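ok so I'm stuck.
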Amino acid sequence: QVQLVESGGGLVQRGGSLRLSCTVSGTISSIKAMAWFRQAPAKERELVARITRNPGSTYYADSVKGRFTIPTENAKNTIYLEMNSLKPDDPAVYYCNVLVPDTGSYWGQGTQVTVSS
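replied:
not stuck anymore, here's the structure
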């Protein structure tokens, strides 16, 4: 069974930075894609950033381009999201997601990010 646990969320001032972490455990042969989504109250869950392997590619939502980064060299079984220049539009519950070939898509439980003005 695959489990994902996020951490690193919290309260930060506008313009500040946070780094989210997602630890993946369980029996995984390979990971096709790693991604971060977010969901604000009364809004749909949206894709924030994704890194895909074979072929390699990276996607960022327009709203976070230039501010958020998924490092390409993640620690083994850990996915990070580096968030800089946080804005009032960024508060949400952030979820990590992995896509495992022939197995499926897995989600973490989410971590709350709050930005104070």
